[in-house]
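Milestone M4 deliverable, item 7.
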Amino acid sequence: MADKRDYYEILGVNKGSSDIDIKKAYRKLAKQYHPDVNPGDKAAEAKFKEINEAYEVLSDSQKRSRYDQFGHAANDPNGFGGFGGSGFSDFDFGGIGDIFESFFGGSGFGKSSRRGGPQKGNDLKYSMEVSFEEAAFGTEKEISLNRMENCATCNGSGSKQGTSSSTCKQCNGSGQIQYKQSTPFGQFVNVKTCDACKGEGKIVTDPCNTCGGKGKIRKSVKMKIKIPAGIDDGQTISLRGEGEPGAKGGPSGDLYISVRVKPHALFQRQGNDVICDMPITFVQATLGSELEVPTLDGKVKYTIPEATQTATVFRLKGKGIPYLRGNGRGDQYVRVNIEVPKKLNESQKAILREFAEKSGDEAHEQRKSFFEKMKNALGM
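Output delivered:
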């Protein structure tokens, strides 16, 4: 008894730790040293045994109180259900069965699973493509979806009309079979799905001709989906209860529609704003001009001032994407780019040369400023 390590030290917690902290510490260590995770590792087996012994005492308020007062002497080593002997055969897993169930797939440790209760149906996923404008202003789409549905002939029971299913004799209606499994630590009570009724607890003796006793059939269903204005690429629409039907009175699953927005030839989206690049001529930029600007609402007129520089951005307020949840819209930003003509005849070139001679550097302030900076930087 004197050689035993302190239980708090084993779990790595302080003496004043709460029950929740102790349980968290136990979960972490039990998962780390469980024999299923460390097959054939004797040191891990010993550690696992030590962890369980500590938790069995510290998780019980009365045993923990006695241990805090008297240490290991407070409890007879033989009273721990075989920790001083052959293993865990009499160990009361009680409240820790759910811990191992979550770790190792519900092997049980004496704890029954919840398969017998209502079960929610499967969720479904669907991918949909919409245009840039449809995403901006919303639309309604009809989709065709294949999903399981309750058989209309038997109302989902699986039995022919006028008959009913019988309780499974192998599991007595529980849907599960319990069996004992020997381990290096004793015998554990495991639970598995009843293979006779497939976990349903009932057996269809006279099956429905439509669904063959399954209670469900696969059908192609058409439904109309509302795409909200302002939805963005990659966002998801969730429709509650439009998935597959549940079992044993459980609710139907949900339908999740992933939306993909097609790229637009003119517009790019940034949040709720729209960006549009628009080419203009040298003359329009120099003298100013009234432009016809494309927007999601159609063409609008916009006047640019004289001496507009390339990459200048103009704002069209309220011409962007509607807000998905709320009123109002984003803005449209028009970025103008001056297009330099590639093919000029001799007459046009002559006019430009004459313009360059008459204007000089005074007409090009940015160019003049650049060369002045270059002279200063290079000491020219």
